[in-house]
Specification:
The protein has 440 residues and is α/β, with parallel strands linked by helices. Helices cover 29% and strands 23% of the residues.
């Protein structure tokens, strides 16, 4: 049985936090053996003794599937930085309770702000998916989270496209009302913004997604019964470029109201399992993938939640939650592999990434890859979350890490970097110029 779930590990701290990608790969390989395929890494806490890690893995794959799937820890250093354009990566990790971007596409406005300061903004569904709303900037690229990590790790490139053929897969819901509104969402996308959706497939029995919480408090989950879905993806291979999927998510019924009543104190229970699910699919098939939850019952769908926290409002006004996924995947860039010796024109690689913007305290593969690639990182304090890591403890090069208060300041740092200005030189007081006397 093929299933996806989260493992929790404690890994000994390495001196100076040097070589963390290799350190994590070696330690986790020893723990996992050769039967589990890692798809997502989060370092939830760093203390003087251990890194507390949570790792999403796929179990039950056949040996050929394992052999032909690249490791998330594969790393290819970039030879240099391409300075002809200024391109930023904007990440708000799913399931960590971020003040901004931890709810329902409520980082859309921040994405548009950051996009105004760069040539291309590369971001992921958690940032802009807001049920029926997706305000991805015109110069934005909608990239599944595991693909963002692989881009920064230097193992793949991104090729912008005019349009994708989007395969849509959804639950054959026991109440046909929910299947019907999801199909109607696909029809609306075809009619209103010209989506090319060559096929819509209803899964019976459906994939089983379950919402869970890790000991850190992070939203995670478990995915089972994937065989029928993978059979569909194999059967239609070659007729689609991207995958949009809508399924039910099992969770306690109280979550459906508690999340809104607590107005942000509860971490969004849907996003964590959605993230490891799409990470698994994109890793196995090298395609853009995005997921939307399907309601369990009409009772939940029709619940009167009153006036909710504005960050959650996009979910309350939606029925299918699917339009944001379809809008994003329509022009999601394609994955280009084998870029080490020949990168086609127009393909973005790690060499084209000018900076990474993250919430303060977040350590996962994007942060570690940026550290190793020499990519400047801008960490935003105001985007509070449950991660417990001190980014200043990592072995950054001079001028590589900038801790800012908010996204307004992040734009200022981005603009300075784009202009070739050392950001601290426009602050006061200005420190004395250091010097040494060289003696024979």
């Amino acid at each position: 049985m093929i299933h996806v779930y989260e493992e929790e590990f404690e890994i000994p701290v390495v001196a100076g936090h040097n070589g963390l990608i290799h350190h994590f790969r070696a330690r986790l390989a020893a723990r996992l053996g050769g039967e589990l395929l890692p798809v997502r890494l989060a370092v939830t806490e760093t203390n003087e003794h251990v890194y507390k890690c949570e790792l999403g893995v796929i179990a039950g794959l056949l040996e050929p599937q394992l052999r032909h799937t690249c490791s998330i820890f594969d790393f290819q250093p970039r030879a240099n930085e391409n300075c002809s354009t200024f391109n930023a990566v904007f990440v708000v990790p799913t399931g960590i309770g971020s003040e901004l971007g931890g709810h329902a596409g409520d980082a859309n406005a921040a994405a548009k702000l950051l996009a105004a300061a760069c040539d291309t903004l590369i971001t992921h569904p958690n940032v802009v998916n807001a049920s029926d709303v997706n305000e991805l900037p015109e110069n934005g690229l909608y990239v599944e989270g595991s693909i963002v990590a692989r881009l920064l790790m230097g193992t793949i490139g991104l090729q912008p496209v005019r349009a994708n053929r989007v395969l849509t897969v959804l639950d054959a819901h026991p109440d046909s009302y929910f299947s019907n509104i999801t199909i109607n969402a696909v029809s609306a996308a075809r009619a209103s913004f010209g989506l090319d959706s060559p096929e819509t497939v209803l899964l019976d029995p459906p994939v089983k997604l379950e919402s869970l919480y890790a000991s850190s408090g992070r939203a995670v989950g478990r995915v089972e019964r994937m065989e029928a879905l993978l059979k569909v993806l194999d059967e239609y291979r070659g007729s689609y470029d991207a995958l949009a999927i809508s399924t039910q998510i099992d969770m306690p019924l109280s979550y459906h109201t508690d999340y809104y009543v607590e107005r942000g104190d509860m971490i969004n229970p849907w996003g964590g399992v959605e993230a490891i699910f799409t990470h698994a699919l994109s890793s196995l098939y090298d395609i853009p993938a995005a997921h939307a939850p399907m309601e369990i019952s009409r009772e939940i769908s029709n619940a009167d939640l009153g006036i909710v926290d504005p960050r959650m409002a996009a979910e309350v006004i939606s029925t299918s939650y699917f339009m944001c996924v379809l809008k994003g995947l329509q022009r999601a860039p394609r994955i280009i592999k084998d870029i080490r010796f020949n990168t086609p024109p127009g393909v973005l690689t790690a060499a084209d990434v000018s900076c990474l913007v993250i919430p303060d305290g977040c350590v996962g593969l994007p942060t570690l890859a940026a550290l190793e690639q020499g990519i400047p990182v801008i960490a935003v304090r105001e985007n509070r979350n449950i991660m417990k890591n001190d980014l200043t403890a990592l072995p950054w090069a001079h001028g590589q890490l900038y801790i800012v208060e908010n996204y307004w300041e992040a734009v200022g740092v981005m603009t300075a970097l784009k202009a070739g200005i050392e950001p601290t030189t426009v602050r006061r007081p200005l420190s004395d110029t250091p010097y040494t006397i060289a003696k024979p």
